[in-house]
Amino acid sequence: MRQSKLFGKTLKQAPKDEVSINAILLTRAGFIDKLSAGIYTYLPLGLRVLNKIKNIVREEMNAIGGQEILMPALQPKELWEKTGRWTKPGKEVMFQLEDRSGKEYGLGWTHEEIITPLVKKIVSSYKDLPLYLYQIQDKFRDEPRAKSGLLRGLEFSMKDLYSFHTDEKDLEEYYQKALKAYQKVFKRCSLELLVTEASGGSFSKYSHEFQVLTPSGEDIIFYCQKCFYAQNKEIAKFKADDKCPKCKSGKMAEGKSIEVGNIFQLKTKYSSPFDLFYTDQNGKQKPVIMGCYGIGPSRVMGSVVEVHHDQQGIIWPKIIAPYQIHLLMLGSENELGKKAKTVYNKLLAQGLEILFDDRLDISAGQKFADSDLIGIPYRLVISNKTKDKVEVKRRNEKEVKLMEIKELFKKLTSEQSDK
Ligand code: ATP
Ligand code: MG
User: Which of 40, 278, 307, 345 has the fewest C-beta atoms lying within 10 Å of its C-beta?
Assistant: First the structure.
């Protein structure tokens, strides 16, 4: 992509109405634009990152048997009345509206009320189970404090998977599989996290949250400094400096964290109100046992920025960076331009993702600053000083190397194939 044509602009100053690091850096670097508190447009750079995160999630959900669907965001009130969630917590969290005839709807903030009757239409026998369905869709929530950029949106991206089983043992096995798949997702996104026990609602002792320790987090968790057992403060029966209840030797510490994922054993909580039954091998009717599994790709994007940045800007992990290479052309002479374009085209032909700063009216200093702000893993510079070579620097390192173009191609393409 030629930067001269890229839709989006870098800003020297932090926007006045943002306080969180992720919103400040993503706005300054031209990834997102704020429409209103908690509501953002993803500009071309931002959408590339969001889509890469969604694809990682998609790959890991497919790997545990998930089938992707897409359910409506606009949902009739009657379905929500069946579970009582139209009023509680619907009245607080759900955007509720009417059509011209006065029929009431809500905007989806979760999808149990939609998927359970959907599955009832198709599943009737033990032979139809187990079943794993997911979607990646924007959810809507009337959040009281939408001040944390992508971490807390009124409209935000969520992957929600729902599993359907004949019995609790099968649910438990799949739950453990999903837990591992979640760990893979976050590891691939370079987020270190603590699998944290949290409230399981009325049907299960615990749910599990995937918590990223960072000062900007809105949750508080206790975690063992030795075995990393963790519990959300909301349910914990111990305090900081207590002995770990799990390994019995480590000490519990208290920390702020961001919840990037949450998995639940719903059991019959939703199959009961919707009469979702199956017929077992003996012809007996039994309730379907359910689980649900959520990840917020947009919150993951914000969390990565909270964790991976420095004074100059974002430091994207390679796998979700908008581009792998930022090629800077310094100076505007014809020969130089030709050389930079040749390098750009050759790298493109190798299948590498490159942002080419071909802007003519921008100073070298500004190009360097923009490159650090945007945070692409490799910076390549072609200038009068580099002569026949290319200057190479990684965003997360200080060292600058001059390399032969041939040598550089070899290095980059071999790294590409390692991915
Ligand atoms: P929180 O306690 O932070 O409000 P939650 O527990 O209500 O979140 P879930 O219902 O478990 O959230 O949603 C599943 C996932 O969706 C969360 O783990 C998070 O990654 C994401 N998510 C939830 N609410 C938001 C939001 N307002 N903005 C961005 N992502 C969100
Ligand atoms: Mg949660």
Answer: 345
